[in-house]
Amino acid sequence: MQDRLTTLFKAVADPTRREIFHALVIASSALSITQISNQFEMTRQGVTKHIKTLEDAGLVHLDTKGRERFCNANAKPLKELSKWMTFYEQFWDNSLDNLDHFLNTSKDA
Amino acid sequence: MQDRLTTLFKAVADPTRREIFHALVIASSALSITQISNQFEMTRQGVTKHIKTLEDAGLVHLDTKGRERFCNANAKPLKELSKWMTFYEQFWDNSLDNLDHFLNTSKDA
DNA sequence: TACTTTAGCAACCATAAAGTTGCATATTAA
DNA sequence: TTAATATGCAACTTTATGGTTGCTAAAGTA
Fold first, then answer.
1. What is the CATH number of the domain that holds B44?
2. Would you state the torsion angle of the CA atoms of residues B92, A20, A51, A40, taken in this order, to the nearest 10 degrees?
3. pLDDT tens across A70-107, in order?
């Protein structure tokens, strides 16, 4: 369907999803779908969809206990985004001389 | 309309846009819209739209010369994404102990 | 057993997004 | 001045996306 990087970037491109993810990261314990829903002005089903997207991206892990599903954040996949950006870091501060730097640092690699 | 982080993440969440951006970053000189279009199996208008999105995110700078518009990549805005991720780095390798680390590093801030 | 809570699933809606075609316009070349 | 090139703009199509409502089922509780 779509590559991992795209899945990850899209998951995080939605502001609501970033909020949910953040809430889970700083939560003192795993939160159920309903608990998360209560923190947002949105239906439970809406939250469920976002959780699914985050889960697909590997940013959330679900743990079913009885009738509840507890969500845990997993920040690890963000490493992949960070890694993608690494290449462009060399161009951050010399946007006008992209070529030179690129050639100098990669031609003999 | 939407916050900067969202604009940025969305710009970069599209694989075609990442390709265009990459092509511009490693290009030896600014490329015109037509020149970029020739590198992609897409109409010129399609590319124009992507360029517009990248421009809105600040990742591309346009420079009109005569009837042509030359595009330059600007990687600087990626810093903002990187900055966003910084907070979550502390959770990369201890996804199960999010709370503890968070409390230890931010409670007295 | 009856009631309540947690959640999934499906259908639906509105809007955004990716990409297209067609046409008008400005600039450059012949 | 005529032709060719580079582009923008607008309209349109298709498919995703964010969100909703309504219903069903499973798991606890009284």
1. 1.10.10.10
2. 170
3. 999 999 999 999 999 999 999 988 645 444 444 444 43
Nucleotides of D under 7 A from a protein CB: 5-11, 17-22, 26-28
A56 and A104 in a single domain? The answer is no
Residues 78-107 of A with CB under 7 A from strand D: none
Q: A73–B3: do the CB atoms touch at under 8 Å?
A: no
H-type helices in chain A, by residue range? 4-13, 15-26, 33-39, 44-56, 78-89, 98-106
User: Are A12 and A55 within one domain?
Assistant: yes
Residue A64 is part of which domain span? 4-76
The answer on B69 and B17 residing in a single domain is yes
Q: What is the mean pLDDT of residues B36-50?
A: 97
Mean pLDDT value across residues B55-63: 96
